[in-house]
Amino acid sequence: MADGQPQAAIPPQPKARQLRACLLCSLIQTPGDFRKSGCPNCEEILQMKGSPDRIQSCTSTYFDGIIALIDPETSWVGRWQRTSGNVRGMYAVRVKGRVPEDVEAELESRGIKYRPRDQTDID
């Protein structure tokens, strides 16, 4: 964090086959990073930190494309992907899967519309 902005870890190349993408924000990390820190964007809702079962149900290994989000606030790609308010990091363009029902219910109770990251819910 050279300039004080929060950011996610960039996974090393040898771990590329193990990478997982968050089903809520599409951030890509290793399972170890999700276990150690959770998702820096969604931890309050997903609560993955220290929970292998939660990591399995709230992330996916099936994703397409990778975006390096360097300046979340001004990036047009960030706006297009709905990641503009998130931390810097590597994001999947598309993630296969849905968050668990309890997470969808929590989002709904907070007045947040859940949009799957597989691009099936087009505005």
From TrEMBL:
<dbReference type="GO" id="GO:0000993">
    <property type="term" value="F:RNA polymerase II complex binding"/>
</dbReference>
<dbReference type="GO" id="GO:0000775">
    <property type="term" value="C:chromosome, centromeric region"/>
</dbReference>
<protein>
    <recommendedName>
        <fullName>Transcription elongation factor SPT4</fullName>
    </recommendedName>
</protein>
<dbReference type="InterPro" id="IPR038510">
    <property type="entry name" value="Spt4_sf"/>
</dbReference>
<keyword id="KW-0137">Centromere</keyword>
<comment type="function">
    <text>The SPT4-SPT5 complex mediates both activation and inhibition of transcription elongation, and plays a role in pre-mRNA processing. This complex seems to be important for the stability of the RNA polymerase II elongation machinery on the chromatin template but not for the inherent ability of this machinery to translocate down the gene.</text>
</comment>
<dbReference type="InterPro" id="IPR029040">
    <property type="entry name" value="RPABC4/Spt4"/>
</dbReference>
<dbReference type="InterPro" id="IPR009287">
    <property type="entry name" value="Spt4"/>
</dbReference>
<dbReference type="GO" id="GO:0008270">
    <property type="term" value="F:zinc ion binding"/>
</dbReference>
<keyword id="KW-0804">Transcription</keyword>
<dbReference type="GO" id="GO:0140673">
    <property type="term" value="P:transcription elongation-coupled chromatin remodeling"/>
</dbReference>
<comment type="similarity">
    <text>Belongs to the SPT4 family.</text>
</comment>
<dbReference type="GO" id="GO:0006355">
    <property type="term" value="P:regulation of DNA-templated transcription"/>
</dbReference>
<dbReference type="Pfam" id="PF06093">
    <property type="entry name" value="Spt4"/>
</dbReference>
<feature type="domain" description="Spt4/RpoE2 zinc finger">
    <location>
        <begin position="19"/>
        <end position="96"/>
    </location>
</feature>
<dbReference type="InterPro" id="IPR022800">
    <property type="entry name" value="Spt4/RpoE2_Znf"/>
</dbReference>
<dbReference type="GO" id="GO:0032044">
    <property type="term" value="C:DSIF complex"/>
</dbReference>
<keyword id="KW-0539">Nucleus</keyword>
